[in-house]
Amino acid sequence: QVRVVESGGGLVQAGGPLRLSCTASGRTFSAYAMGWFRLAPGKDGVLGREFVAAISASGGPTFYADSVKGRFTISRDNAKQTLYLQMSNLKPEDTAVYYCAVRPTAWASRSWTEYDAWGQGTQVTVSS
After folding, report:
1. Which of 32, 44, 87, 98 could form a disulfide with 48 if both were Cys (CB 3.0 to 4.6 A apart)?
2. Longest dimension (CA), the chain
3. Is the backbone peptide bond immediately before 61 cis, with ω within 30 degrees of 0?
4. CA distance 1 to 100
C-alpha cells in the first residue's frame, strides 16, 4: 500500500514564497511519475481538482498549469524519496488544498484520473 504525505502548507502573504514537500512510501519512488493538484475553496471535492504540476520518474520532463508557469517549480530527490513544489510570487487565487499524487507509470500526466495514490492534502492560504 502506498502512503503519501504532504507537508509545508501554511499562511503566506501575497508575493511571498512557500515550499511544499511530499514523501511516498510503499512503492519504488524513483520508478513513478508524480504530480501536484489543488482544490480551491468551494470546488467539488473530486471533479474540482486542478492540475498544478507534474514530473516524470527521472526528473524530466516537467509540466505546469498555465496559471503557475514561471512561478512554481516542481522537483524531486529520488534518493530522499521526496517531491517538492517551490512556489513563489503567490497570489490569493493560489489559496487551496494542495495534493500530491503518484502515477503508476514513469511518465507524467496532467490528468488527475491517471494517478492512483493520493495524500491527505496540505492547506495553502495566501492573504492579500
Report:
1. 44
2. 40
3. yes
4. 16
Give the type of residue at 85.
L
Q: Are 83 and 34 in contact (CB under 8 A)?
A: yes
Q: What is the rounded distance in angstroms from the CA atom of residue 27 to the CA atom of residue 122? A: 22
Residue with cell 524513483: 30
pLDDT digits over 26-44, tens only?
Answer: 889 999 999 999 999 998 8
Amino acid at 112: W
| Residue 59 C-alpha from the chain's centroid | 14
Scanning the structure block, which residue is given the C-alpha cell 522537483?
A: 75
Neighbouring residues of 44: CB distance < 8 A, sequence distance ≥ 6: none
Residue-wise pLDDT for 75-86, tens only, equals 999 999 999 999
Nearest to 53 by CA among 19, 11, 78: 19
